[in-house]
Specification:
six-stranded mixed beta sheet, Rossmann fold, globular, alpha/beta, four-stranded parallel beta sheet, 2 domains, homodimer
Chain lengths: ~325, ~325
C-alpha cells in the first residue's frame, strides 16, 4: 500500500489510471438554488458516477494500483454501502474476485447491488467486531487484499480526483462543500484543493446526529462515531487514522446541519433539478441553504456524492 | 392564430423565438438500457426543461407570437397539468397575466406550482363542461387569449423544436419514440422528423389504459378518450382536431404498453440514470423495452417529456 499522503502527482496519476473506468461527471447549475441561497453554486454530480457514487474512483484506483500477483488473489472489504458496490464493480472489470463481508441484516437492495457486480458475499453478525473478524478470515483464506473504504491512501487519491475535475470544470471556487463520514472524500478533496486550487476553502459537512468529525476537528482529538442517528446513511462511520490528520491540516472548517435540513435539501434537489441524490449527498447543500456560513456572492462547489437509495423508503414519506 | 400546419421555416422560427426562454436540454445515453434493449438509445431530457416539461416550448412560442395588444390582455387556459405551469411561467416572463382555470379538486402541489409563477387561478367544478364555460367567462371578462395545451399550431410548432434539437444533437435516428396524449408533442415531433430528418420514423407511445390515439390512428377515425385509466396522468386527453390529421399523415405507428411496463421503466430510469421522470415520460422507453417494435441495432430517440410529479405518491409504493 502507498505509505505516504498523496501528493499532487499521485492524484494526477490516479486520475489518468481510473479515466477509462469512471465517468467524468458533469457539473450542473441551478437558478433555483442560486436564488434561494444568494450563492453561485456548482454541483459536481457524482450521483451520475459509475455504480452511483464517487466510491468508484477510490475503489478503482486502489484495485488498479495493486501488483499483478496481489490483484490476482482478489480484493475484499467489509461494507454494506456504496464502497462494496464500487469494489465489486472494479474487481469485475479487472477480472478478479471481490469478497464482500456484509452484516446479515443488510437491506436486500444492497445485497442485490453487490451481487449484480458478481461480488462474493460473506454474511456475518451485525457488529463491527464480527465484520472485522470475518473479513480477516476471508482474506486469510483467499489471499485477497483488503481495500478499506477510506483509510487507504490510494482510495483517498482516487476520491481526490473528484475535486481535481472540479478545478477544471468550474470557475475559481471560493469554497468546496463536501460530506464527511469516514473522511475519504473530504481528505481527498482537501488535498486536491491544496495542490490545484489553493485559494479554495474546503468545508466538511456533517449531520448533527453523526457529528464525530465536527467534535474531533474542533477538539483536535479523535472521537469515534458512537450511536450515530441520521438519515444520511453514508455518513455513519468514524474518521480514520489516515484521513483525520489530513482533515486537521487542510480542511477549513466542519459544519453541521439538522435532519430536517438534510431532508428538505434532498427533496428540493429532486423537485427542482430532477435528479436523484441520496441523503448523504444532500448534506453540503443543506449547509449552504442553512446560512451558517457566509457564502453570499461566492462561487461554491457542492459535491453530490451519490445517488443510491431504496426508492421505496424516501425520507419525506 | 396561425391557421396552417407549421412548415419547416415556422418551426425554425419558433426555435429562435423561444431560445432565450427555454433550455436546450441535453441528450443522455445509458449503457444499462442499451444493453437491456439491444438498441442504441438517445434520451432527450425535457424533464430538465424549464418548468419541468416540454410544455414550456409551446406555451412560450404561442405567447411570444401574439400581437402586442393581444399579449397585454394576458393568456388563459384550462389545465391542471404541465401546460398550466408552462403558460403561467411564459406570462410571468413576458410581464402579463396568465389566467388558469383549474378544477377545485386539483392536487395542492399543482395549484402551488401555478401560483409560484403567479398564475391567477379560477377554480371550477371538475367537469370538462365547467372548465370550458369558466374559461369562456374568464376570457370574456379579461380579453385574455386562450392558449390551448395542444390544439394550437403555434403550440405544435413550439413542441416541434424538441425533435428539431434532437436532429442536431443525435446521430441519424432510425426512430423517435414519443408519448401521445392530446398529440401536441407527437404531431410536432412528426413534423420536425418529416422536414429535418425524413428517414426517421416517429412512433406514438400510449398507455393501454388510455389508448384513444391507438384506436383513432388505426381506424383513421377520431375516438375520444373516455374514462382513461393510467398512471401516466399527462396522457389522459383526447387528440385534437389539429393534431389528429398531422398524426395520421406523418406518424409511422402507435404502440401501447401496460401500466406495469410503464412503472417498471420509470423506476429503472430513477435507479439507473439517477434522473427523475414522470410516469408519462416513461411510456416511450417502456415501448422500447417491451420488444413490441423491431428496434434491434437501431438508433432510437426517446423523448423524456417531463419530470413533474408528487414525490409522496410514487407509483411503485
Amino acid at each position: 500500500m502507498a505509505l505516504t499522503i498523496p501528493d499532487a502527482e499521485t492524484i494526477k496519476q490516479a486520475a489518468e489510471r481510473i479515466d477509462p473506468y469512471v465517468h467524468r461527471t458533469p457539473v450542473l447549475r441551478s437558478a433555483f438554488f442560486d436564488k434561494l441561497t444568494g450563492v453561485s453554486l456548482f454541483f459536481k454530480c457524482e450521483n451520475f458516477q459509475k455504480a452511483g457514487a464517487f466510491k468508484s474512483r477510490g475503489a478503482m484506483n486502489a484495485s488498479l494500483s495493486l501488483e499483478n500477483h496481489e490483484l490476482k488473489a482478489g480484493v475484499a472489504t467489509h461494507s454494506s454501502g456504496n464502497h462494496a458496490q464500487a469494489l465489486a464493480r472494479a474487481a469485475l472489470l479487472l477480472g478478479v474476485k471481490a469478497y464482500i463481508v456484509m452484516p446479515k441484516t443488510a437491506p436486500a437492495a444492497k445485497v442485490a447491488a453487490v451481487k449484480e457486480y458478481q461480488g462474493e458475499i460473506t454474511f456475518c453478525e451485525p457488529t463491527l467486531q464480527a465484520r472485522e473478524e470475518t473479513l480477516k478470515q476471508v482474506t486469510d483464506r483467499t489471499g485477497a487484499t483488503e481495500i478499506h473504504p477510506y483509510n487507504n491512501y490510494r482510495v483517498i487519491a482516487g476520491q481526490a480526483t473528484t475535486a481535481l475535475e472540479m478545478t477544471e470544470q468550474c470557475p475559481p471556487l471560493d469554497y468546496i462543500l463536501c460530506p464527511v463520514g469516514g473522511g475519504g472524500l473530504l481528505s481527498g478533496t482537501a488535498l486536491s484543493a491544496h495542490y490545484f486550487s489553493p485559494q479554495t476553502k474546503v468545508i466538511g459537512c456533517e449531520p448533527k446526529g453523526a457529528d464525530d468529525a465536527f467534535v474531533s476537528f474542533n477538539s483536535k482529538t479523535f472521537y469515534p462515531s458512537i450511536s450515530p442517528q441520521t438519515v444520511a446513511d453514508g455518513l455513519l462511520t468514524s474518521l480514520g487514522s489516515l484521513t483525520f490528520p489530513i482533515i486537521l491540516k487542510h480542511v477549513h472548517d466542519i459544519a453541521i446541519v439538522e435532519e430536517s435540513e438534510i431532508i428538505q435539501a434532498m427533496q428540493w434537489v429532486w423537485e427542482r433539478m430532477k435528479i436523484i441524490i441520496e441523503p448523504s449527498a444532500a448534506v453540503p447543500l443543506a449547509v449552504a441553504i442553512s446560512g451558517k456560513l457566509d457564502l453570499q456572492g461566492k462561487n461554491v462547489g457542492i459535491i453530490f456524492s451519490g445517488g443510491n437509495l431504496d426508492l421505496k423508503k424516501l425520507p419525506w414519506l
